[in-house]
Design brief:
Layout lengths: L3 E4 L4 E4 L6 H5 L10 E7 L2 E6 L13 E8 L2 E5 L2 E5 L4 E4 L5 E4 L6 E7 L9
Length: 125
């Protein structure tokens, strides 16, 4: 059990039983500087964020491997040279350092972002 406060960009979510609802996470957005993401849970190398861009996804490649879990909305996911449609319930994976973005997404789009492992990503198995 995690017994700590996780600091978000505009508020804090108490994580007493390892549970954060989508509604609690979305309530942190936008952040104080209009951020469209907020950290909601951390443990070891694991970091979970909520991400809900509006209009255009301007993110840059990340230094760690990441998994997206689509919670709401539809659109297209560009992952390196590949393009995939997405919908709620889909799981998307991105290697560290790979250019990626969401395009043509609906106004209600939101994903859990799960970062894990070392900087530079895990070694190929």
């Amino acid at each position: 059990m995690i017994d700590e406060m996780i600091q978000g960009t505009s508020s804090s979510i108490p994580v007493k039983q390892c549970r954060v609802t989508l509604a609690e996470a979305l309530a942190q957005l936008p952040g104080a500087n209009n951020e469209r993401f907020a950290p909601v849970l951390r443990h070891g190398s694991l970091e979970v964020e909520i991400y809900a861009p509006r209009g255009v996804d301007l993110q840059m490649p990340h230094t760690r491997d990441e998994v997206y879990v689509v919670m709401q909305g539809h659109g297209e996911f560009v992952n390196g040279p590949s393009r995939h449609p997405f919908e709620p319930g889909d799981v998307l994976f991105v290697l560290a350092g790979v250019e990626h973005r969401f395009e043509n997404f609906t106004d209600d789009f939101a994903v859990w972002v799960i970062f894990y492992g070392p900087e530079g990503g895990e070694a190929n198995a």
